[in-house]
Design brief:
The complex is a heterodimer of chains A (274) and B (357). Chain A has one domain: MetI-like (MetI-like fold), CATH 1.10.3720.10. The longest helix of chain A is centred in the N-terminal third of the chain and has 33 residues, at 51-83. Chain A is globular and about 70 Å long. Chain A contains 14 helices and no strands. Chain A has 274 residues and is mainly alpha-helical. Chain B is an alpha+beta fold. Chain B folds into two domains: 4-225, 3-Layer(aba) Sandwich (Rossmann fold), CATH 3.40.50.300; 238-356, OB fold (Dihydrolipoamide Acetyltransferase, E2P). The relative contact order of chain B is 0.11. At the A-B interface, helix 9 and helix 10 of A face helix 2 of B.
Chain lengths: 274, 357
């Protein structure tokens, strides 16, 4: 195929990237640094220091960290069990865990709202058994639950992939050289699955940091994340400049956190950015 | 020779319905280079893995220096393994790989540093400390795997087809390296291979295995010159294996011709297997041979020619340095000393072996 034709084939993707990613990004940056009258200003960037915004960003970071840690703690042992199962059709295992992702994530969050609500399914069952109700709907706990439920596969899959790439004979070689089970885990399995852990952390932390839909549904307006503030600026207040300013700051936080996480990945595998 | 270091007593092992080892008995002496030789699936690798501690036998007992190690986990055994796939840790440098076992046994930093240097010198890879595993060729990785095993000063080094993935020239060089290492270290080597030439070159003792049974144990010379059954004879180099009848002591009949030999004690008119090595078949004038035949194929092999000679309904394999063109009418002669007589297999196990071949 000629060079021209090959370039031609990349055309649709280039149009997509320029029209729907680069252009909007440029617009956001433009709006972030200009006032409503078009004059350059830093006031919308500085708006992050306002108490509401600062608290929302702080809560977003905090819930993002909690969600990521919970996902990691749940996913790592599960991935180890799955990778040790030696099932002939390993893709079936992956399929099982991808299955929930076939359903729209908003629907799944709405389902959780019904389950968790004051007179919802879970509380009906609990009271039926004579136990006390749990009231976590409209709290940060419910938001974290929703995030973990939604983003868990993004933690599980990269770790599972990394673990299945660890060869059995490396483990045997380590045992042969005198390593017990604990040493094998910390010296062989953990370092060799690090790239998967890093990918998982990035893929869970970034969406949970920027999430606004989950907090809206399961937080019921009581849990204000930075994503919600931005959404309100754009959709309710029509304050594009203020929304863009906060979006820009959030973008900096996302890139910084990814760079921080990637700095632990010595091998350079599984890098998402930087 | 010296005392037993390892004893396998009545070891059996099966995977599902597949019996891999059946009541294996074997001892390995101190400072011996012992090779387990056989085709794939003969149980040689399983035997090694049982010794390394990666598998547990279904029954039987393994003794190491008189102590029962049958159920001792791999990391507590005083032996080290060189794996077929090298199995170097990809996230560590060469030095870290070699230091792995030493760090676990909590040796001092200076000791570890000296040991790495010594081991790299021993395998002719000085200065490779900080290289990554990926930057090494297969042969170099293999030598690092050996270095990583021997720095722990094991009493026994287990080698699982360590040269299998290397090309011919490198393999031959590594064979000499291994012999040299064995002499320098003065430890026991247990070596697994399916390559008969490798086994003959390096071993003090060869254990020929097939289908979970030991076929013969002996020195390379014993195994080559005096194979105990047709399987061993066939596996150790291509041979002419013929059905024969022992007429009486020192006289055997093959292909309808009575030929003098040196074997005794088989009884009179007993069916036997007769092995004649291709290099022991002499091609002479038709009138001078025991039987006459025609050359049907000729291949140049470098050191010698490989010929097929059709005679009395049997196709003889002949190695000779003389050029004998296809179609030549020749006589076949073998001196009595070079005729190897073997009992026909008696047990059903041995028969199964023969059918399989």
């Amino acid at each position: 195929m000629s060079k021209f034709k090959q370039q031609f084939l990349s055309g649709p993707y280039l149009i997509w990237i320029i029209g729907f990613i680069l252009l909007p990004m440029a617009m956001i940056i433009y709006y972030a640094f200009t006032g409503s009258d078009g004059t350059p200003t830093l006031q919308y960037i500085a708006a992050i220091a306002d108490e509401t915004n600062r608290k929302a960003l702080g809560l977003s970071l905090w819930l993002g960290v909690i969600c990521t840690v919970i996902c990691l703690v749940l996913a790592y042992p599960l991935a180890m069990i799955l990778s040790n199962m030696h099932i002939k059709n390993q893709s079936f295992v992956v399929f099982i865990f991808m299955l929930p992702m076939w359903m729209n994530f908003m629907l799944r969050i709405l389902a959780w709202k019904l389950l968790l609500s004051k007179n919802g399914v879970i509380n009906s069952v609990l009271t039926g058994m004579g136990l006390s109700r749990i009231n976590i709907i409209n709290t940060p706990a419910a938001v974290v639950l929703g995030m973990v439920y939604d983003f868990f596969p993004f933690m599980l899959l990269p770790i599972y992939n990394a673990l299945t790439r660890i060869r059995e004979d490396w483990i045997e070689a380590a045992a042969d050289l005198g390593a017990g089970k604990i040493t094998i885990f910390f010296k062989i399995i953990l370092p060799l699955s690090l790239s998967g852990i890093i990918s998982g952390i990035v893929m869970v932390f970034v969406p949970s940091l920027t999430s606004f839909a989950i907090s809206q549904v399961l937080g019921g307006g009581h849990v204000l994340l930075i994503g919600n503030v931005i959404e309100q600026d754009f959709m309710q207040g029509m304050q594009w400049n203020a929304g863009s300013g906060l979006s820009f700051v959030l973008m900096i936080f996302v890139i910084a956190s990814m760079a921080l996480v990637n700095s632990f990945d010595k091998e350079g595998e599984g890098t998402v950015i930087c | 020779m010296s005392k037993h270091l390892i004893d396998f007593n009545n070891i059996s092992k099966s995977y599902g319905d597949n019996l891999v080892l059946d009541e294996l008995n074997l001892y390995i002496r101190e400072n011996e280079f012992l090779t387990l030789l056989g085709p794939s699936g003969c149980g040689k690798t399983t035997t090694l893995r049982l010794l390394g501690g990666f598998e547990r036998p279904d029954q039987g007992q393994i003794l190491f220096d008189g102590r029962d190690i049958t159920n001792l986990p791999a990391n507590e055994r005083k032996l080290n393994t060189v794996f077929q796939k090298y199995s170097l840790f990809p996230h560590m440098t060469i030095a870290e790989n070699i230091a792995f076992g030493l760090k676990i046994s909590k040796k001092s930093k200076d000791y570890i540093k000296d040991k790495i240097k010594y081991a790299l010198k021993l395998v002719n890879l000085e200065g490779f400390e900080d290289r990554s595993v990926d930057s090494l060729s297969g042969g170099q990785q293999q030598r690092i795997a050996i270095a990583r095993a021997i720095v722990n000063e094991p009493k026994v080094l287990l080698l699982d087809e360590p040269l299998g993935a290397l090309d011919l020239k490198l393999r031959q060089n590594m064979q000499y390296e291994l012999i040299r290492l064995k002499e320098e270290l003065g430890i026991t080597f247990v070596y697994v291979t399916h390559d008969q030439e490798e086994a003959l070159t390096m071993s003090d003792t060869i254990v020929v295995m097939n289908q979970g049974y030991i076929q013969q144990i002996g020195t390379p010379e014993d195994i080559y010159n005096e194979p105990q059954n047709a399987f061993v004879a066939d596996f150790i180099g291509h041979s002419n294996i013929l059905d024969g009848t022992m007429i009486k002591d020192e006289l055997v009949e093959i292909l309808g011709v009575r030929i003098p030999c040196v074997d005794k004690g088989f009884g009179n008119n007993k069916p036997v297997d007769v092995v004649i090595r291709p290099e022991d078949v002499e091609l002479v004038d038709p009138a001078e041979g025991y039987m006459e035949g025609d050359v049907t194929s000729l291949i140049f092999k470098g050191v010698h020619y490989e010929l097929d000679v059709m005679s009395n309904g049997y196709e003889w394999l002949v190695h000779t340095t003389k050029y004998v063109p296809v179609g030549t009418h020749v006589g076949i002669k073998v001196i009595p000393f070079n005729i190897q007589i073997m009992h026909k297999p008696e047990s059903s196990d041995e028969k199964a072996v023969e059918i399989d071949e």
